[in-house]
Amino acid sequence: MTGLDSGAEPAAQAPQTGRQAHAGRRNFMRKVFFAGGATAVATMGGAGAWAALAADETGATASPDPSGTPTGTPSGAPTGGPGAGGPGNQSITEDFFGLTADGKKIDDLFTVHSEGVVTAPVIAAANAFLAGLSATQKSSTQFTVHSTEWRLWSNVDAYDRQGVSIADLSDEQQALGKALLQSALSADGLETTERIRRINQAAGEAIDNTDSFNEEAFYYTVLGTPSATEPWGFQFDGHHLVINYFVLGDQVVMSPCFWGSEPTEIEIDGTTVSVCKEEVKASLAFINSLTEAQRTVAIESTAKSNESMKAGAFADNAVQEYTGLRGNVLTGAQKLKLLGIVEAFTGRAKADVAKARLAEVRAHLNDTYVTWAGGIADDSAFYVRVHSPVVWVEVDCQAPGPLAGAYGASQGSGATQMHVHSVIRTPNGNDYGKELLRQHYLTSPHHR
């Protein structure tokens, strides 16, 4: 299979250069994942799905190689609880099901239909990016749309990634990669990605560790073949920054996306550069719009732990009951402030993608729950979760981590707004557009 990999070991290639990560661990995880492939295939549904997976040259026959079992944990990876992306969570041995409130997926929330999103620019940009890669680069960058590569992302700096990194690209290739991001993201979204990368570099310089923390160790992968009619997508993956972008016709699913930084503010070349402020500001505006009685319901704890995120990396199937304050008790003004938290994330996509996403969220606003932990002052560390049948947002002010020295903090000294992790997801099976993908193979005549 040329240029497309779905789980089989890649053909021998020339030694990789730059900061290109080794693929051994991830290839092992693919084998483990596909070892239980019968369930994975069944959830796709239909003969077309069977044929599509068979074309991936894995089917349900792959089995893990005991000799390839990784031991220990990746160097430099942090510890942490569920959703942390820490070493205890860096595997996907279960089939994809999606986030749910009770372990039962709600059907009929997402359908294949026309949304009027203009996808031609991102298709053209993806094709141009692929065309600009060498054969070796392309073979390690392009995967099938069914590939487990979708789920093998992490916000951890030391995580081994697939694809091609910015460090491995020429200036011309870097411009093509940036054009791909520019075609998918709003001006704010593109600026946010650039600032996260710049801060990562500056913080690395501040602690004299640019091998681990820099602006080039961010990786592109393309899933499927860019098309106006067939499903495909791309992923941009690195420390504190992960974008998953699925395309089917004129529909786009941009989730899961991880946005974070440590620090969230630093001086670079005499100018203060900040990031992740929009979600923090919107969250505090919402909690402070509530009455005292409403805050009593929304705030589960006035204390903030060092890490609270529930559905970060490798938590695709997290089960979390609805908790906190329900949207049906909010005033119109309060609902707008609740939407403001979500808009801080959806606004990083192009306007038509954001509009379609917010329409989904609004339709379920009365069934949206908000849970809070921590303080509510402008400088308070806090955690907020916005949870409905169609959207999941977490904003988590965390304790100083490996880059604490860049802003004069001590690692693990208590949660702070200077270290923020945040994520947006689509519950009930449509992260990575997987529910749309399933329906496409069930309903498209050429896949039956």
How would you sum up this structure, described in words?
With 448 residues, the protein is an alpha+beta fold. The chain has 12 helices and 15 strands. Strands 1, 2, 3, 4, 5, 6, 7, 10, 11, 12, 13, 14 and 15 form a 13-stranded mixed beta sheet that branches. Helix 4 runs antiparallel to helix 6 (171-184) and helix 8 (277-287) runs antiparallel to helix 10. The protein is globular.
Low-pLDDT stretches? 1-90
Rounded to the nearest angstrom, the radius of gyration is 21 Å
Strand residue content = 15-25%
Order of helices and strands: HHHHHEEHHEEEEEEEHHEEHHEEEEH
**Total beta strands:** 15
Helix/strand/pairing class, anyone?
A: alpha+beta
- End-to-end span in angstroms? 23 Å
Residue share in helix: 25-40%
Shape, per Cα inertia axes: globular
Features:
alpha+beta; 15 strands; 13-stranded mixed β-sheet; two-stranded antiparallel sheet; 448 residues; 12 helices; 31% helix; disordered N terminus; globular
Outline of the structure:
By secondary structure, the chain is an alpha+beta fold. It has helices at 24-35, 37-44, 46-55, 120-131, 135-139, 171-184, 187-206, 277-287, 292-298, 332-346, 351-363, 434-443, and strands at 142-143, 164-165, 218-223, 232-238, 241-248, 251-253, 257-261, 265-268, 271-274, 299-301, 325-326, 369-374, 382-387, 392-397, 420-425. Strand 4 and strand 5 form a beta hairpin.
